[in-house]
Write a structure and sequence with these properties.
The protein has 515 residues and is α/β, with parallel strands linked by helices. 48% of the residues lie in helices and 13% in strands. β4 and β5 form a beta hairpin. The structure holds 5'-O-[(L-methionyl)-sulphamoyl]adenosine. 5'-O-[(L-methionyl)-sulphamoyl]adenosine binds next to α1, α7 and β12.
C-alpha cells in the first residue's frame, strides 16, 4: 500500500438537489477515504460541484437568478447534505472558483501549444442535459443515446482535441495497466468503444457564455467536460503560482481512484487520460465505474425526488442506517434496486438485531454479573479473537478491491457469531455453576473486546455507532483518533466501568416509523 492516497467523486451538477443515487457515490468514496486514514495513510478526498455549462445557465435563468448566485446557493445545499451524511472530504472544489479557472486555462493552453488542440468547425448534435456531443449515427431514433432526450443541432466554430491521435497509445496503456478501468466489464466496454474508432472531440463552444473562456480566443468557452475533469488537478494546486499549492499536487497526483457512476466512465477513462497524455501529465491509477441505484419503477428522476431525498431519509432513520444500507445492500460495481422497505429491513436485521442487541446484551450481563466492570480474561477459549482476526483479513482484502459490501458483510458476520457465542456459552449458567467465575469473566471480556474492535472496523462506514459502542464499553476516549493498531486483540483494559445506554439502533418497524 502507498503511504498516500487520493480519491475523488465526480463533481455534481448543482442544477437541482441531489438524491440518494448521488449520495451513494459520495458515501462510498467517504468510506474508502476513511479506511485509508484509519491505516495511517495520508489521504486526500475531493468532491465538489460542476457549475458551468448551458444546462446550468438555462436553469439559473428559469429561476430568475444569475448563474453565479444560483450555483452558490445550490453548492451550499450540497455541502449541507454532505455534512448530514458525515462526509469527510478534504476539499470541495467549485468550478467557478478562480483557482479552478486558472488550472483549466493552463491545461487547455498547454495542450493547444503542443498541437493537440486545433481550431475547426463543429457541425453536429448536442445533448444539453448530458453536455455531450453526438454524431448523427450515434443517435437512437434521433434522441440522445444516453438519456433518451432530444438533442440540438449545432453549427459553430470550435476547438477540437486530437483524440484520434491517441487511440493506440490509450489501448497500449489499458493492456499494460489492466486495473486502470474497473470493474472488468466496464474496461471491456471502453476497449470496444475505442476500437470502434474515435473522432476528435469538440472542446469549445461559442453559443453561450457561462464557462471558462479559452485564454487566447475569448469568444470561445471551454467545453464543460474539459473544464469539469480538470477539477481533479485544480484542487491540488495545478496551474497555481503558489508553491505550497503545487506541493499538494506533487504529493497527491496521480489520483489513486476516480470513483464515478457507470454513465460517465467514458469521460473519465477515455477522454480524461487522453487530455493528460497530451499535456504530459501522469495518468490516474484507476477509474472505478460503480452501478446505479434504481427504483422498482425505473431510473430515479426529478419527479420522484421526494421519495429519495437523502436529508429526509437521514432525518427519519439516522445517518448510520442510510450509510450502512447504501454500502451493504449493493455489491459495489453492480446496479441495485433501492427501496425504503429494504432500507428498513436491512437496518432492523443487521444494525438493530445483530449489532445493537449484541451491545445491549453484553453490557446488561456485564452489569448483572460483574458489577458493571470489565473483568480479566484468564480462561479465554480464543473463539472470538479468532473470528475477529479472520474478519480483519477479510475486510482488508475486500477494501483493497473496493468491495465495500463484502467488507461490511465480514464485519456483521462477527456480530452474528458473537450473538451465537452468547447462546453457546450461556453466561447465566456459568454464573450459577460452581467454579464458573473464570470462564464467565473471560466470556464477558471477550464479548466486550470483540465489540471494541468491531467499532474500529466499522469506523470507515458508520459515523455515530463506533463512538457509542466505545462509550458504552467505558472507553475513556472516542474513536476519532483510533488507528489500525487498535484492531489487535487485547486492547480493552480490564477494570473499565461500562456505561449502559440507549439501544445502539432501536428497531424501526416496532417504532412504527417503517412503512
Ligand atoms: N457533473 C458530472 C460529473 C463531472 S466529473 C468531472 C455529472 N454530474 S451528476 O450530478 O449528474 O452525477 C454525478 C454522479 O452521480 C455520477 O457518478 C452519477 O453516476 C451519480 N449518480 C446519479 N444518479 C445515480 C443513481 N441513481 N445511482 C448511482 N449513482 C448515480 O455527471
Amino acid at each position: 500500500m502507498r503511504d498516500r492516497f487520493y480519491i475523488t467523486t465526480p463533481i455534481y451538477y448543482p442544477d437541482s438537489d441531489l438524491h440518494i443515487g448521488h449520495a451513494y457515490t459520495t458515501v462510498a468514496a467517504d468510506a474508502i477515504a476513511r479506511w485509508h486514514r484509519l491505516h495511517g495513510i495520508r489521504t486526500f478526498f475531493l468532491t465538489g460541484t460542476d457549475e458551468h455549462g448551458q444546462k446550468i445557465e438555462r436553469k439559473a435563468c428559469q429561476m430568475g437568478e444569475t448563474p453565479h448566485a444560483f450555483v452558490s446557493r445550490m453548492a451550499d445545499r450540497i455541502k449541507g447534505l454532505w455534512s448530514a451524511l458525515g462526509i469527510s472530504y478534504d476539499d470541495f472544489i467549485r468550478t467557478s472558483e478562480p483557482r479552478h479557472r486558472r488550472a483549466v486555462q493552463a491545461l487547455f493552453e498547454r495542450v493547444y501549444r503542443q498541437g493537440d488542440i486545433y481550431l475547426g468547425r463543429y457541425l453536429g448534435w448536442y445533448c444539453t442535459p448530458c453536455e455531450t456531443f453526438w454524431l448523427e449515427r450515434q443517435l437512437e431514433q434521433g434522441l440522445c443515446p444516453d438519456c433518451k432526450r432530444t438533442v440540438e443541432f449545432l453549427e459553430e466554430e470550435a476547438y477540437f482535441l486530437r483524440l484520434t491521435k491517441y487511440a493506440d497509445r490509450w489501448l497500449e496503456h489499458i493492456a499494460a495497466y489492466p486495473e486502470f478501468i474497473q470493474p472488468v466489464s466496464r474496461r471491456n466496454e471502453m476497449v470496444s468503444f475505442v476500437r470502434a474508432g474515435l473522432e476528435d472531440l469538440c472542446v469549445s463552444r461559442t453559443s453561450f457564455r457561462w464557462g471558462v473562456p479559452v485564454p487566447f480566443d475569448l469568444d470561445h468557452v471551454i467545453y464543460v467536460w474539459f473544464d469539469a475533469l480538470t477539477n481533479y488537478l485544480s484542487a491540488l494546486g495545478y496551474g497555481s503560482g503558489d508553491g505550497e499549492a503545487r506541493a499538494c499536487f506533487e504529493t497527491f497526483w496521480p489520483a489513486d481512484v476516480h470513483l464515478v457512476g457507470k454513465e460517465i466512465v467514458r469521460f473519465h477513462a477515455v477522454i480524461w487520460p487522453i487530455i493528460l497524455m497530451a499535456a504530459d501529465i501522469p495518468l490516474p491509477r484507476q477509474v472505478y465505474g460503480h452501478g446505479w441505484l434504481v427504483l422498482k419503477e425505473g431510473k430515479i428522476s426529478k419527479s420522484r425526488a421526494n421519495s429519495v431525498d437523502p436529508l429526509v431519509l437521514v432525518d427519519r432513520y439516522g445517518v448510520d442506517a442510510i450509510r450502512y444500507y447504501l454500502l451493504r445492500e449493493i455489491p459495489f460495481g453492480a446496479d441495485g434496486q433501492y427501496s425504503e422497505d429494504s432500507l428498513v429491513a436491512r437496518a432492523d436485521s443487521d444494525l438493530a438485531n445483530d449489532l445493537g442487541n449484541l451491545l445491549s446484551r453484553s453490557t446488561a450481563m456485564l452489569e448483572r454479573f460483574c458489577g458493571g466492570v470489565v473483568p480479566h480474561a484468564t480462561d479465554s477459549d480464543g473463539q472470538l479473537a479468532a473470528a475477529i482476526e479472520r474478519a480483519v483479513g477479510q475486510v482488508s482484502r475486500a477494501m483493497q478491491a473496493l468491495q465495500l459490501a463484502d467488507a461490511l458483510g465480514a464485519i456483521l458476520e462477527v456480530a452474528r457469531r458473537a450473538n451465537k457465542y452468547i447462546e453457546e456459552q450461556a453466561p447465566w449458567e456459568l454464573a450459577r455453576a460452581a467454579g464458573g467465575g473464570r470462564r464467565l469473566g473471560s466470556v464477558l471480556y471477550d464479548l466486550a473486546e470483540c465489540q471494541r474492535i468491531l467499532a474500529v472496523l466499522l469506523k470507515p462506514f458508520l459515523v455515530r455507532a463506533p463512538d457509542v459502542i466505545w462509550h458504552q464499553l467505558g472507553m475513556a476516549r472516542t474513536t476519532a483518533d483510533a488507528t489500525h493498531h487498535e484492531l489487535a486483540w487485547g486492547g480493552l483494559p480490564p477494570g473499565l466501568t461500562i456505561r449502559r445506554g440507549e439501544p445502539l439502533f432501536p428497531r424501526i418497524v416496532s417504532k412504527g416509523a417503517g412503512r
